[in-house]
């Protein structure tokens, strides 16, 4: 009887912990999906928060922007080495051109 109570309590704690972790992950995904960044003023640190953009691509974006000027639209991002149609598609709902 006592062992059954221990197992029951343990199972309840496990289920509660599992759902709390799942909620935290979906909250993090929601926050990530709502990020909107001005590509023409963003720092490297801000750019790496975008989907598909790591440190090297973020640096390349900033260097390209400084060398050639502001990006006018999504297509102009492809002038950055390593950014193609796939990355642009991931970025389109996360960036603005101001």
Description:
The protein is mostly helical and 98 residues long. It has 2 domains: 1-34; 37-96, Photosystem II 12 kDa extrinsic protein (DNA polymerase, domain 1), CATH 1.10.150. Helices cover 58% and strands 4% of the residues. It has helices at residues 2-33, 44-47, 55-68, 85-91; strands at residues 37-38, 95-96. The protein has a two-stranded parallel sheet with strand order 1-2. It is rod-shaped, with a radius of gyration of 21 Å. The N and C termini lie far apart (68 Å). The relative contact order is 0.14. The mean pLDDT is 84.
Descriptive key words:
about 100 residues; mainly alpha; 4 helices; 2 strands; about 5% strand
Largest β sheet strand count, sense and barrel closure: 2 strands, parallel
Question: Helix proportion of residues, in percent?
Answer: 55-70%
CA radius of gyration:
21 Å
Helices, by number, come to 4
CATH superfamily of the largest domain: Photosystem II 12 kDa extrinsic protein
The total strand number stands at: 2
- Share of residues in strands: under 5%
Give me the secondary-structure category: mainly alpha
So what's the overall shape?
A: rod-shaped
CATH topology of the largest domain: DNA polymerase, domain 1
Spatial ordering of strands, largest sheet: 1-2
Oligomer: single chain
What's the rounded overall pLDDT mean? Answer: 84
The name of the CATH architecture of the largest domain is Orthogonal Bundle
Detail the poorly predicted runs. Answer: none
Helix and strand run: HEHHHE
CATH class of the largest domain: Mainly Alpha
N-to-C CA distance: 68 Å
* Tally of individual domains: 2
